[in-house]
Amino acid sequence: MKISGTSQLSADREAVWRALNDPAVLVRAIPGCSRLESIGDDAYKMTVAAGVGAIKGVYDGEVRLHDQQEPGSFRMHAQGAGAPGTIGAGVLVTLEAVAEGGTELTYDADATVGGMIGGVGQRMLTGVSKKMAAEFFGNVDALLSGSGLVGVPDEGSAPGGAVYTAPAAAPPSHPTGFVMGVAVGAVAALAGALVGGWLSRRRT
Amino acid sequence: MTTKMFGQPIRRTEDPRLVTGNGRYLDDLGHDALEVAFVRSPHAHARLTDIDVTGALDVEGLVAIYTHEDLEAEDIAGMAEPLPMLIPHPTLTHGRTQCALARTEVNYVGEAIAMVVATDRYIAEDAAERISVVYELLPAVVGVEAARAAEHLVHDDVPGNVAARMVQQTGDADAAVDGAPHSLGLDLAIERSASMPMEGKGVLAKWDSDDSSLLVHTSTQTSTSVRQAIAAKLGLPVDRVEVVTPDVGGGFGVKIMHPWPEEVLVPWAAIRLGRPVKWTEDRREHFVSSAHERGQLHQVRVGYDDEGHLLGLSVRFWHDNGAYTPYGLIVPIITSTQLLGPYKPGVYRVEFASLYTNTVIVTPYRGAGRPQGCFVMERVMDAIAADLGLDRTLVRERNFIQPGEMPYEQGLVFQDGRQLTYDSGDFPASLAKLKTLVGWDDFPAFREQAQAEGRTVGIGLACYVEGTGVGPYEGGHIRVENDGTVVVSTGLTSQGQGHQTMLAQIVADELGMPMDRIRVTTGDTRRFKYAVGTFASRTAVMSGSAMALTARKVREKALRIAADALEASVDDLEIVDGQVRIKGAPASRIDMGTVAVLSNPLRYAFDEAARRATQFAPAADPTKPPVAAGDAPGLEATDFYSPTQSTFANGMHAVVVEIDRDTCDIKILRYCVVHDCGTIINPMIVEGQIHGGVAQGVGGALYERMEYAEDGQLLNASFMDFLMPYASEVPTVEIDHLQTPSPLNPLGVKGAGEAGVIPGSAAIASAIEDALGLTIRRMPISPSELFHLRLTSAESAGPVETLRKVRS
Question: Smaller CB count within 10 Å for chain B: N or C?
Fold first, then answer.
């Protein structure tokens, strides 16, 4: 399944790059993401709750980043599995500065969605994943322009990496997605992955 | 006078029970049973590197989790090994079957990896979700093209993904094509589909530890063979295993495949746990872990003379057999032989390769390779007609085998290992009937009128021949009870076709018994142990014939006993309405129940009727042994029918379609069928079978396909996305019958179960071509595909014009 799209962010390219590489931002911005853990250079483990229609579940996945061309582009590879199915995705993310200010973000993903969600939810996946991606970038933008929340690693981090969790308070995502139970896809894992990917480098 | 039942449109005796909700299907049974859910592969091709069940262990209600390791640990020789290669063939050089639970590798999305047993299905599913499997992904091979390219292999030890290559020929067909005055080449494709019975598969097993016996209920088309397979796989003596087929909500071929992994795993678990265990397939499981059919690519070369007579036909095709080949090469063998239909092909050569892909296995689905073959041959006929500017019916007529040429040898070996010899049929008569029924010669006027109204219509036809009643045998057992009840059993199974009614009609006539005294049981190995199964449109031919033969034996015995009792000659007796009576003196009579009593010499009178058979009763002749040498007590008999070859039914369909000029929506205006299944036992049942077949034919032509992504994910594995025709899409089927009796069996019958589906894609493609003046080379076709085909065809308007001229 091929999914691509663009998103306009108001912050400049460097700020977006930083945000996308800040796990504390990401864990808040990825729809359904409850946990991010660094498991090495440019590699993360994450937990994302997502669903398409009635097929909901929690996915555990890993994301690896590569080919980073700061601040212009990077690729990531994501692999996740949960009760409703599995997802594997390769994503290319490019950031371009827009002349009148802000950043245009383009993503190009090739995803394999397997298991129940692959056979039963397929019809809705592209729409769902695009919606999730839009939600994610919207969240990033909101974080950049607004509250400026900074994530703090949890106590009792797993050995080998810091763990970031979403705050108990609702993140600044718009509520429709999960509340209405429609929006999120296995591709949540994808969008998540896409996101999750970034996490990495900047975290010290 | 007893009304003759044979040939009458008797209402189905099973229907009152079924339509009032009193059917008993697999999932209606075993309320106390433990239930099973499976962990199935989400990947089309992967190596299993780890299975971790610990997350599932604390689920309350979990009873057991089994993986392949458990099958190995068990001291049963067969369980860990691959399932049987059911139908071996010398050309199936690289046959492969799967293990009941995957050992080290999975080869399609849906392959079973772990079996979870719990107190109910919900809990079993919850536990299954918590089992974590680690996969090492391998590249998936999906579709015929990828299989042929063999850039990746499904099975490491199967070079080129080729399970089998097979050639049959009657001479040098390519030379015949090359030497012909005209020739054409066509590439033709049919997509993958599946039969989708309303009821999926299901298995219930009960182990009786007191007498070490296993009772299995399964939604199958062959209980006798499942019994043998379970006994073999589980290492049980066959006489400790019984298999019963309850009511079955449709089979259409997918349930003739056996033993399914679940059919051996569920009994295996029941024995281990000492408790009844049940598994009921859900719809998604049916999509991804049962069987599909139909996916084939064909390349045809045909040579013909100026009048359209075939001189040479050379066909190559590639059959997608999915990940494994448990059912052998039956489907492509049928395509390669039945492709010929009612025609004389000149010199014929056919070659096929059966190819592995990382998809669900392929086994017969109603029609079983014939819809593809019919599509190929009928596209060829239409192409020749277009090329020569001849009427499409004329080209067919000129190539028909004539009635006087029966039996006709095609010079090939059929799916049953016997020569492909047509036993009967009158193809010119069938075509004449079809032309009349659909009004073929008046169609140009209708087209003109439609055009004047701004409508686009077309007419098409397709002909087929179908080998039915495949051997090796079926049998019947009939016993008349003391109360005159006739208890009838046959070993093959019923999936809703009306077998009870049809078999009772045969017995009623042969025995002179009223229908309401006859009770028919099918598919219960406790009642009848020797049978093959319900497939290849064989029940009426095989069990029907066996039942007639059996009834004749019972009748003979009844007359012999009654002749003694009535002090008359056997030749003077008749059986009418359950009474044996003297012809011309109907007052001298004895009812069949009494004959049954007298057939069983007794010492003990357990009821009033039995008194008549006891040793001091007047009937006893003290000078003879009570049971004569060579005789047996009881008014009963068993007999079998085993023909030398299949019997060949045939038919022709004509379709009128209307194509929406803006959207290319395809509407079927008329659907006409001329059907020859030999002597008809019950026209209502035959017509019902044709209706159902046509519905599936329409589905195959316009709606149904399995949408596999390149990575082997089945994208439309639900009834939301897999289109099937509803009543609103199934046309009214107009039927005319031609009855050319088969000389091969005592009833003159030929099979009728699959026929309706066979020419669907061919006939509808023909009609769409005719409506739009374009060429269709692959089916099914959706409105949007047709829309695009019309766009691309418009670019080459020349031939379209030619075609249009011919047709109008």
Answer: N
pLDDT at A95: 92
Instruction: Tell me how close the Cα of A2 comes to any Cα of chain B, in angstroms.
Output: 11
ipTM of predicted assembly, 2 dp? 0.71
A189 vs B152, more confident: B152
| A115 interface with B at CB cutoff 8 Å | yes
Q: CATH number, domain at B273?
A: 3.90.1170.50
Q: Which residues of A touch B130 (CB under 8 A)?
A: 83
Residues of B in contact with A112 (CB under 8 A): 709, 711, 713
What is the rounded CA–CA span in Å between residue A26 and residue A163? 12
Kindly state whether residues B445 and B393 are assigned to the same domain. Answer: yes
Q: What CA–CA distance (Å, rounded) separates B735 from B653?
A: 9
Give the residue from B272, B289, B306 where a domain finishes.
B289
Across chain B, what does the average pLDDT equal?
Answer: 94
Exposure string over B439-463, b if 16+ CB within 10 A, otherwise e = ebeebeeebeebeeeebbbbbbbbb
The 3-state DSSP class for residue B143 equals: coil
**Are the C-beta atoms of B83 and B143 separated by less than 8 Å?**
no
Condensed to tens digits (0 to 9), the pLDDT of residues B781-798 reads 999 999 999 999 877 654
Residues of B in contact with A123 (CB under 8 A): 716, 720-721
CB atoms within 10 A of CB B75: 6
The verdict on B415 and B499 lying in the same domain is: no
Specify the pTM. 0.90
Q: Do B284 and A115 touch (CB under 8 A)?
A: no
- Among B613, B641, B669, where does a domain finish? B641
Task: Provide the token pair at B506.
Answer: 């045969």
Helices (H), B86-137: 121-129
Please give the structure tokens belonging to residue B752: 């009728």
CA angle B354, B358, B364 (to 5 degrees): 50
Locate the chain A residue with the closest alpha carbon to B709: A1
Task: Classify residue A73 as left (phi > 0), alpha (psi -120 to 50) or beta.
Answer: beta
Query: In total, how many domains does chain B have?
Result: 3
* Residue-wise pLDDT tens digits, A96-126: 999 888 899 998 888 888 887 777 766 777 7
Q: How confident is the model at residue A196 (pLDDT cuts 50, 70, 90)?
A: very low
Quote the CA–CA distance of B254 and B258 in Å, as a whole number.
9
Residues B356 and B321: their CA atoms lie apart, in Å, by 6
Question: How does pLDDT run across A46-62, given as a tens digit for each residue?
Answer: 888 877 666 677 888 88
Per-position DSSP letters for B197-248, written without gaps between them: -SS--EEEEEEETTTTEEEEEE--S-HHHHHHHHHHHHT--GGGEEEE--B-
| Alpha-carbon gap, residue B477 to B171, rounded angstroms | 46
Q: What are the tens digits of pLDDT across the range B487-533?
A: 999 999 999 999 999 999 999 999 999 999 999 999 999 999 999 99
B718 chain-A contacts, CB cut-off 8 A:
119-120
Q: Which amino acid is at B376?
A: V
Q: pLDDT for B129-174, tens place per residue?
A: 999 999 999 999 999 999 999 999 999 999 999 999 999 999 999 9
What domain range is B620 assigned to? 472-641
Task: With CA atoms as reference, report the closest residue to B83 among B274, B334, B327, B443.
Answer: B327
Q: Residue B22: CB partners within 8 Å, gap ≥ 6?
A: none
B693 and B761 in contact (C-beta within 8 Å)? no
For the ranges A28-32, B404-408, B552-556, B635-639, which has the lowest average pLDDT? A28-32
Residue B431 and residue B326 share a domain: yes
Helix and strand numbers, DSSP H then E, in chain B: 21, 29
List, for residues B137-147, the tens digit of each pLDDT value. Answer: 999 999 999 99
